[in-house]
Amino acid sequence: MEAGSTGNVDLLMRLMNATAERSRVISSNIANVNTPGYRRQVVQFEGLLRDALESGKGGLEGVQPDIVEDTLTPARPDGNNVNLELELNAERQNRLLYETYAAMLQSHFDLIDTSIQSGR
C-alpha cells in the first residue's frame, strides 16, 4: 500500500474511534440525566483535526479526541444541563458519521480488492 493510502486508512480509523468515544460520552450523559449537578460532556475531535490540517504543520497523529464540559447548554435548577432530546439527536448524528466513515473505509478496501483481483 502506498503512503497516502495508509494515511487515509489511519485517518478513517481515527475518525471512527472518535465517534466510538463520542458514543460512550453520550451514553454517560444519558445515564446521568437525573444526577443533580452533573454537567454534560462533549467530545471534540473533527474541529481539532481540521485546525491541525489548516495549520499545515502536519502532526495529525498527535490530535486526539478531547472530552470537555458543555458550558453553553443551560442548566436546570438542580445544576444538571443534560437535555435528553439533545443527547438523542447527538447520538443519531454520531451514528451517521460512524456509518459514513465505515462506508468510506469499506470502499477503500473494496478498491484494493478489485485491484488485486484484476491483477491475477
Structure in words:
The chain is mainly α and 120 residues long. It is 62% helix and 7% strand. It is built from three helices and two strands, in the order H-E-H-E-H. It has helices at residues 3-31, 46-55, 84-118, and strands spanning 41-44, 66-69. Strands 1-2 form a two-stranded antiparallel sheet. Helix 1 (3-31) runs antiparallel to helix 3. It is elongated, with a radius of gyration of 18 Å. The relative contact order is 0.18. The model has no long low-confidence stretch (mean pLDDT 90).
Task: Describe the structure in brief.
A two-stranded antiparallel sheet has the order 1-2.
Q: What topology emerges from the helices and strands here?
A:
Elements: H1 3-31, E1 41-44, H2 46-55, E2 66-69, H3 84-118
Antiparallel strand pairs: 1-2
Helix pairs in contact: 1-3
Low-confidence stretches: none
Taking the alpha carbons of the first and last residues, their distance comes to 17 Å
Give the number of DSSP strands: 2
Helix content: 55-70%
Q: What's the total helix number? A: 3
Task: Estimate the mean pLDDT confidence.
Answer: 90
Which percent range describes the beta-strand content? 5-15%
Major beta sheet, specifics? 2 strands, antiparallel
Listing every helix as H and every strand as E from the N terminus to the C terminus, the arrangement reads HEHEH
Return the structural class. Answer: mainly alpha
Approximate shape = elongated
Widest sheet: strand ordering: 1-2
- Evaluate the radius of gyration: 18 Å
